[in-house]
């Protein structure tokens, strides 16, 4: 498995930052030996380093130029940062040479330079301070470019060619202590100890994404391969574990999905039944509304008939009352005797004479002729008229004789 992983590591010379900042600990840059081989970019913000900073990196010399430059920041002619690979350049606003104190060609070593404006500038190799000087009181200017592997202003001079290898260049916005720098050196090229500092503002993983010119390639240092293999194995195990967990979750999701589909089918069936019930209800409602309209129409007819009936009832009531009155009169007449005729005007309050007597006798004698005939209103009116005419004649005769 190890040879396969080594092949994988060597095959991918430049993984993307998206693969994770942690993996960038295993990537380094190798510079060609011409004036065209360099990295150049404008940093996002150099203001955190204006009054103090510490620059740390791993480098390996592979070219014997007289004044090789690893990093050059040049915002103005007076203020600049120059770091070299052989001790000639250790400058922040002023020159500071440590030639002869740097490792030989072909050897990886840890370099650190701290600087405080108006304070002290120190240089460390492999965690040990090899020199210091007083720092100028001017703050670092802003607005310049950073060049790696060449002089930012004089790219045509071969004496400035770095031509070596560079790894984990980081800048911190503070003066790191000797113990902090020693910790980074002793942790090794493949550690991530520097990542714990919040003051790390210029980061190696970001530098790896900047524009490269000429022959500048990305690779994994051999000393990092064992750690890189362990990292990849751990990452593979983690991925397999996550895959197993994902598969488990996928199975749970499938079970839940089937349950949901079953529930959905049940709900769909219930919904269809509800729709049918709703349709039936609407049909029944329409039928009920039609019946209600018919009943309302019938009710109106009934109300009209009722009003007519009430009117007729009122008429009947009036007639009934009249009939009751007539009935009461008739009942009174049932007790009338022949003597009640004396209550009439020809006899009442008058002197009963022989003539009146004869009149009564004659009236009743006349009725003898109608025995067997129905006593009707017409017959009575006939007798009354005859009687009244007879009474009138008698009265006139009586008046004459008087």
Topology (SSEs and partners):
Elements: H1 2-11, E1 28-31, E2 38-41, E3 52-60, E4 69-73, E5 81-84, E6 90-92, E7 108-116, E8 120-125, E9 128-134, E10 146-148, E11 165-172, H2 178-187, E12 200-202, H3 204-207, E13 212-213, E14 216-219, H4 225-333, H5 354-368, H6 377-401
Antiparallel strand pairs: 1-11, 1-14, 2-10, 2-13, 3-7, 3-11, 4-5, 4-10, 5-6, 7-8, 8-9, 11-12
Helix pairs in contact: 1-4, 5-6
Commentary on this structure:
With 402 residues, this protein is an alpha+beta fold. It is 43% helix and 18% strand. The chain contains six helices and 14 strands. Strands 1, 3, 7, 8, 9, 11, 12 and 14 form an eight-stranded antiparallel β-sheet that branches. The chain has a six-stranded antiparallel β-sheet with strand order 6-5-4-10-2-13, with no helix packed on it. Strand 4 (69-73) and strand 5 form a beta hairpin. Helix 1 (2-11) packs across helix 4 (225-333). The longest helix has 109 residues, at 225-333. It is rod-shaped. It starts with a helix and ends with a helix.
Please report which band the strand proportion falls in: under 5%, 5-15%, 15-25%, 25-35%, 35-45% or over 45%.
15-25%
Low-pLDDT stretches: 1-20
Q: Report the structural category.
A: alpha+beta
Helical content stands at 40-55%
Overall 3D geometry? rod-shaped
The strand count comes to 14
